[in-house]
């Protein structure tokens, strides 16, 4: 006799909480690794991180925070095992969009700007870099705080500091001056 099964709780085809978690954050995790460490095998790092989450599933209080901490550790381990200069060179080459007939002057300028930006982002402390990259991935401060296991105020402070440091490193100023108290 064949038993009828009840419909799944979520759209993933599973009632298992880990499966639901996996399906809800997998793409975001791959995007996070890709943005934070272009040139590395994002899916491999994400797969290892989800394995770690599954291994500790019953004891982890905040699976999102645990996942993102594991992703950061996986990225760090990959960087330790490869030369940073070689990796940045591959990162640069892999991220360039194909151009059919580039103007040599444009290529020289865009190469220079891209290398400056990559270098500037790499100079940010890890926490600032994480917040900046997640912001670029369109996460809201509350979501970033939850993912990283920090307070929202920490996220906004780190983002403000990252913005200031990048401006200082790159030598850029805001396009419009801020209103000083009394200016109207």
Portion in beta strands? under 5%
- Strand runs, count: 0
What are the low-pLDDT stretches, counting only 5+ consecutive residues below 50? 1-10
**CA radius of gyration:** 21 Å
Report the biggest beta sheet as strand number plus sense, adding barrel if it closes: none
Q: What portion of residues is helical? A: 55-70%
- Describe the global form: globular
Distance separating the two termini:
79 Å
Element string (H = helix, E = strand): HHHHHHHH
Q: List the total number of helices.
A: 8
Q: Average the pLDDT over all residues and give the rounded result.
A: 76
- Class from helix and strand fractions: mainly alpha
Protein architecture, described:
α6 (126-136) packs across α8 (152-170) and α7 crosses α8 (152-170). 66% of the residues lie in helices and 0% in strands. With 184 residues, it is mainly alpha-helical. It has helices at residues 17-36, 42-55, 63-80, 84-95, 104-123, 126-136, 141-148, 152-170.
Outline the fold blueprint.
Elements: H1 17-36, H2 42-55, H3 63-80, H4 84-95, H5 104-123, H6 126-136, H7 141-148, H8 152-170
Helix pairs in contact: 1-2, 1-3, 2-3, 5-8, 6-8, 7-8
Give a quick rundown of the structure:
Helices cover 66% and strands 0% of the residues. It contains eight helices and no strands.
Top keywords for this entry?
184 residues, mainly alpha, disordered N terminus
């Amino acid at each position: 006799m064949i038993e009828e099964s009840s419909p799944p709780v979520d759209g993933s085809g599973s009632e298992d909480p880990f499966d639901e978690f996996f399906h809800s954050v997998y793409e975001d995790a791959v995007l996070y690794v890709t943005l934070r460490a272009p040139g590395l095998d994002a899916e491999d790092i994400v797969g290892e991180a989800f394995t770690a989450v599954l291994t500790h599933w019953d004891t982890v209080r905040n699976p999102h925070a645990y996942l993102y901490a594991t992703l950061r550790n996986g990225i760090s381990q990959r960087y330790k095992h490869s030369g940073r200069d070689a990796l940045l060179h591959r990162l640069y080459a892999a991220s360039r969009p194909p151009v059919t007939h580039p103007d040599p002057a444009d290529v020289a300028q865009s190469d220079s700007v891209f290398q400056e930006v990559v270098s500037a982002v790499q100079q940010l402390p890890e926490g600032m870099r994480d917040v900046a990259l997640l912001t670029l991935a369109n996460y809201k401060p509350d979501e970033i705080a939850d993912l990283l296991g920090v307070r929202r105020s920490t996220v906004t402070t780190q983002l403000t500091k990252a913005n200031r440091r990048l401006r200082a490193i790159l030598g850029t100023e805001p396009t419009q001056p801020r209103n000083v108290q009394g200016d109207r």
